[in-house]
Amino acid sequence: MIIINNYKFLNIFLSFYKKYNFIFLIDNYIYKYYIKYILFNIKNIKKHIYILKIKSGEKYKNIYTCIKIFNKLNKKNINKKYILFNIGGGVISDLGGFIATIYKRGLYFFNIPTTLLSIIDASIGGKNGVNINFYKNIIGILNKPKIIFIDKKFLLKLNKKNIISGISEIIKYGLIFNKKLYYLIIKNYKYNFNKIIWKKIIKLSIKIKIKITNKDYKDYNIRKILNYGHTIGHSIETFFLNKNINLSHGESIALGFIYEAWLSYKKNILSFKNFLYIKYNIFKIYKYLYKYIYIIKKNKNIILNNISIDKKNFNKYVNFSLLKNIGNCIYNITLNKKFIKKTLFNL
């Protein structure tokens, strides 16, 4: 269930869980600026709330953070009469969903996403996981939150980097599933969350994610199109995380769109005209990303090695979802690693 901007409905929902205590897994920034606001608006919860503050950022989404949290939960004798509230961005929902699912064989959990990316992507669909040595989501599990509550207020104070990171996932939905959304976001990427058009963009993005994940929850078929841009994008993200360079998930994925559109063209799936159009629009929105192309090319062997560790990899092949057209993506395209090495960095 998803509730948008309606604390009255949220409190009615929570009234069915009066017998439970609550844990808030919340990042430091949200705690500092929003904890009083959250506690004021959420009425129907017991007075006993255990708050777990953690640092935000991809580098903290790992098994070591999980172990620290497990130890804290254990010391507090947290049991199955507790519900975990994940309040924050994609790192919090990924981490919190994973922890809730495996701690004492499962606690209920709710998501309150606070970034654009987590609202339209990370908190929806049931994928939870953590990284090992910056390799993305090596350990993971599928489990949906009982509820996702979206409050527009969190969007209004996001910094530019956070917003631009989320926009890449909206672009992805347009590229793989809905060309109208693609043209809509390309035209309106200079965001204003108070505008009706942006409310439409966010709602449409959420609907697309729900539609795809409901059709293929276990990720056997059509859900794989959501991986578009992520095979190359994750390997780029891993490389820059290891170098301690602040390139966000969304920015890395935006670069992944270009590289995987190029592979789509080189496999005669996507037209050259559409490849150029996609590349042009990505660099129109993310002008500053152009400088990373040289760094990626210079370190192509490391990037390729990261691709080899990707969970979609098998033997000498990597499984891709590639574009046939804007708004049309096909999955289970297996590419030989030699072909990838020969082709990928000749943009």
TrEMBL record:
Keyword tRNA processing among UniProt keywords: no
GO annotation terms (biological process): aromatic amino acid family biosynthetic process
GO molecular function per UniProt: 3-dehydroquinate synthase activity; metal ion binding
Segments traversing the membrane: 82-103
UniProt domain 3-dehydroquinate synthase C-terminal: residue ranges: 166-313
Database matches in InterPro entries: Dehydroquinate_synthase (IPR050071), DHQ_synth_fam (IPR030963), DHQS/DOIS_N (IPR030960), DHQS_C (IPR056179)
Sorted UniProt keywords: Cobalt, Lyase, Membrane, Metal-binding, NAD, Transmembrane, Transmembrane helix
Superkingdom of origin organism: Bacteria
Domain 3-dehydroquinate synthase N-terminal, first and last residues per copy: 52-163
Gene3D superfamilies for this protein: 3.40.50.1970, Dehydroquinate synthase-like - alpha domain
UniProt keyword Transport present: no
Cofactor(s) needed: Co(2+); NAD(+)
Name the UniProt record assigns to this protein: 3-dehydroquinate synthase
Species whose genome carries this gene: Candidatus Shikimatogenerans sp. Tcar
